[in-house]
Amino acid sequence: MKFPILSLITFVPLLGALIVLFIPKDKEDWIRWVSTIISLVPLILSFVVYAAVRADAGQMWFMEEYSWIPTLDVYYRMGVDGISAVMVLLTSLLSTLSYFYSIYTIKERVKEY
Question: What residue segments make up the domains of the chain, in order of their start?
Fold first, then answer.
């Protein structure tokens, strides 16, 4: 089985939100540290995807396919090509940068943000 790097880029932030949900709201430092680590994981994985994809090849890379609802013939499929690898990287970069900006601007209700 291949390493599901695209699924990790997609779902690690959701996992991070669930982890932060169980951290008490008075532990703002913990919330910030866990959120920082979780926000860096998709960014690092996006750099790996971007570095590995050859834009001139014209093919899909890091393909993932799982049967989701077999009776209805529904599948979960993900893959990137040259331009979508750039978009994945930019999305991860902007998400991480917006998070780092919020560390210094959000002072109240940190957990909810």
Answer: 5-105
